[in-house]
Specification:
alpha+beta, 5-stranded antiparallel beta sheet, 6 domains
Length: 853
Amino acid sequence: MLNFLKRKPAPETNSEAQSLVNQLVKEDERAHPFKLESYPSGKKILQAEPELQRQVTLALVDWLDRNHPQIGPGLHTDWLQHWKMQNILFDLLKWRLPYSETDLLYILDWSVRQGNNYSRGIPQMIKVISNYLKDAERTEALEKQILTLANAVQSGHRPNLQERRWVIQLHELAGDTEIRLPLVKGDVWADAALAHIHRLDEALQNTWAEFLLHCMRVNGSKPSKKWMTVADAFITTLGRDEYRSRLLDWFPLASQPRPEPAPNYRRGNANMVWYLEPVNGDLLKGLVWTCSREEDPEMARALSALAFTAYKKIPGTGPRAAKVGNACFWALGEMPAGLEGIAQLSILKLRIKARPAQTAIAKALESAAAREGISAEDVEELSVPDYGMREVGIRREQFEGHTYQLKVNGSDVEQVWAREDAKIVKSVPKAIRENYPDELKALKQAVKDIRKMLPAQRDRIDNLYLAQKTWAFSVWRERYIEHPLVGTIARRLIWKFSKDDRAASGIWHEGQFVERNGRPLEWLDEETTVELWHPINVEPEVVLAWRAWLTEHEVQQPFKQAHREVYILTGAELNTRVYSNRYAAHILRQHQFNALCAARGWKNSLRLMVDDYFPPAIRTLPEWNLRVEYWIEGIGDNYGTDTNETGTYLYVATDQVRFYPIEAGHNIAHAGGGGYQATRWRGQREVEPLPLEHIPPLVFSEIMRDVDMFVGVASLGNDPNWLDGGPEVRYRDYWHSYSFGDLTESAKTRKQVLEMVIPRLKIAERCKLVDKFLVVRGDIRTYKIHLGSGNILMEPNDQYLCIVPGRGGSMGSDRVFLPFEGDQTLAVILSKAFMLAEDKQITDPTITGQLRR
């Protein structure tokens, strides 16, 4: 219904009100903002008595009703004038003025007849109705008019989230006591919720409906105390078991795609089935908030899984429901004592790499730390569960006639069932399955949780180098060496111990700490401090001795420590002084690079073709008062070839690495056109990059290790399918130069490890290391596997051999002792070596065709 249709007659207003409105019409409509105080006549209205203000409001409604906006050549002023008057009306309607019922019916009638919800001023209508009902009774005529407005809000289109809220508020103001479930059909979890609630008795249905309506009234990043108090009352009425069971049923269903796209997203895109209805997303957010009062490991896991699926990326759009994920982070951080929520946050910190998620997780951890009165780092250390293990890496359970043992073995978990006679059985005994289903479920869940937590704790400890973290010996021993889970990581690492002027490095071995020569460290006591050992701080012979000790005792470290790459300033870097070009001029897959940045604590933005400049990837090191920049640019000019459908570059080119001091109030000013200024500005003062020789060696080495990893993992040169150089053969030269070029520091470390590993292999006689290659002699050909990229050339003519490794890519390499975990390229190289040494056994036609060519 539009405003030129039949309308109620305007209430009479006096000449003074009419005169003020006429003056407003004539005053400059360009005087922004459109507020009363912006105009001389408006100031008079502000100072007037409430009765005159009421009459001005009614006169304004009448003027808007008689003067419709016109849009077209030469008519812009009329439209702007109407917009001005409308905004002033909306301003006035917020005030509590002495309206009669006739006045209010007239105002609501005008609102109903407008062409869209913005022109109707729905928030202002809700305000004016609320103010009126504070002093007056609701009549049948008023109820009818309010419901007419509610119907107008949702007519003619699918109402959005805000419009649904308005409709609910209007029904409440009209005194409509009918309870409506706000869930929208189509999302799997919402359909399940509707089906369950409709099976309940009327009282429970009404309670659920009111509870969900309460959950729909959510705003901000966290709930108010009043909101939570009301939610608690609903949960008590529903019953704690009903509430808990339903949420544990519904939350996992949110990870499932819709059977078909939402009507708003019918564009033939298969990804549209992942969208959540906005209303359902807000309901989930509210339900998640209520979980913050639950001291419940199962609920904590459910929230963690929901957060992960909420941040599942829809290509070309972003996370499915970031607000739901952020609500999960908040709820986990607020969970009561027991630290179950914080443990899940530690896992999510590893699993979700999106920058907003990392920020929200950090905020939740800080909030939990403040509540516990300790640091965020201490919270993470103290929150790691033991998963039922009473000794490091071992959990034992006795069942009738059988023993169960869970053993953490490196980064995996082994489970063993044995009979009373100690004979191992291959599967869970039938009697145990039948008589102990709940206990088996708990054991199965513990294994899942451990497999998620192990990499989270491994990466947390690996990141301690740049945090300059130290511990008192007794605190460290309790949190690390003796912790049932963390101990499985800490006992395979080398630690530095200091007391007064005495220092030594040691590792846990056979119930004590020993040095690299096997001598026990007997002087460690309460006055000793502990930190993570780094090879840059010792002589090369010490590093080699530790490597030999690890090999002799077959201790596989959870990450590279004794074999950690050390990056020393080169002559070229001393010449360039303030920047390093060591990893410049590489071509990386942008999305993979972006994910790696998030994993290593760098802030990075995807480069788009519409950008006029490309900000660097940045890592901030507050403990060192440093900020690091790695300059990256999007490459390519062809939309759809060099970008995805959203205009995001597929590939980026690398440039310099620079270090800057962190200064308060520091703002980065970018030069236009994709370049950067060589200086940064703080106010009017230039902030110069720091000379590389002034950067602490540990910091420089760890940062360059990150950059080496970015290139080593995300470079196009690693992809065996890129022999042709990609689109228009533009990257062929780069692919060849990287695939078979000089070795980086990480590749040099790989070579050192292979020098130790190869003599132990069953194929040792067929392998040798020559310069940049592992040379493998097969029966058909001889092969050269590059130690950096893992790509292969075949002798005698260096013909390229394309072998794409399968997921995991072990193929025999898992039977080889390696001194550290995590080097996937090393595993791929060994896999290829085992395969090619027995090339006559290869049956894959995509490979055999190349061998015989």
